[in-house]
Amino acid sequence: MKIKKLAILALFISFSVVGAMIKIPAMLIGSIALDSFPALVAAVVLGPMSGAIVSSIGHLVSAQLAGFPLGPFHILIAIEMALILLLFGYVYKKGKKLTSYILFFICNGFIAALPFIFILGTGFYVATMPSLVIGTLFNAIAAALVAPKIVAYKKLNAAEKGHV
């Protein structure tokens, strides 16, 4: 990995940590963090694997700041987040931008929490849905607004360097 890309990846991880400190109140588990937004942008700007790294580290830091309310299940959530961001980034890179955001919304907002029906019960799943869906929607909208601007800036910057 190039040093410049590694530095930018570290910047996105730090944005995810800051996003982890911005909370949407949720029943039972305290809150849902806004740590996915930087991961979505990283997946668009740096590629799917970078988005996966930012999302999983962002989630683990968010969980740590909250005192790991779900204990070791946060490892499962971090893996789920990484897989969701890999899927998002792959579909986005294929040019299916709207589809990628819809997939992210469905996967993160509804599917990722499904294993917890078997682990913690249906009540937990139902109780977390409103905050999880709102958090997912906010993250997706924010990324959809910001990511194209960063990509456009990146292209403009590259074009200017090519003409100098």
Topology:
Elements: H1 3-20, E1 23-26, E2 30-33, H2 36-45, H3 48-65, H4 73-93, H5 97-111, H6 115-120, H7 122-163
Antiparallel strand pairs: 1-2
Low-confidence stretches: none
As a percent range, the share of helical residues equals over 70%
Q: What is the beta-strand fraction?
A: under 5%
Structural class: mainly alpha
Number of helices: 7
What is the alpha-carbon Rg in Å? 16 Å
Strand order of the largest sheet: 1-2
Distance between the termini: 26 Å
Mean of residue pLDDT values: 89
- Biggest sheet layout: 2 strands, antiparallel
CATH topology-level fold name: Arp2/3 complex 21 kDa subunit ARPC3
Q: Can you tell me the overall shape?
A: globular
CATH class: Mainly Alpha
Tally of separate domains: 1
Number of strands: 2
Pfam family, one: ECF_trnsprt
Protein name: ECF transporter S component
Transmembrane segments: 6-28, 40-61, 73-92, 101-126, 132-152
Organism: Calidifontibacillus erzurumensis
Summarize the model shown.
Helices cover 79% and strands 5% of the residues. With 164 residues, it is mainly alpha-helical.
Question: Can you walk me through this structure?
Answer:
This protein is mainly alpha-helical. The protein has a single domain, classed as Arp2/3 complex 21 kDa subunit ARPC3. The protein is 79% helix and 5% strand. It contains seven helices and two strands. A two-stranded antiparallel sheet has the order 1-2. Strand 1 and strand 2 form a beta hairpin. Helix 2 runs antiparallel to helix 3. The two termini are 26 Å apart. The mean pLDDT is 89. This is ECF transporter S component. It comes from Calidifontibacillus erzurumensis. Keywords: Membrane, Transmembrane, Transmembrane helix. Pfam families: ECF_trnsprt. InterPro entries: ECF_trnsprt_substrate-spec.
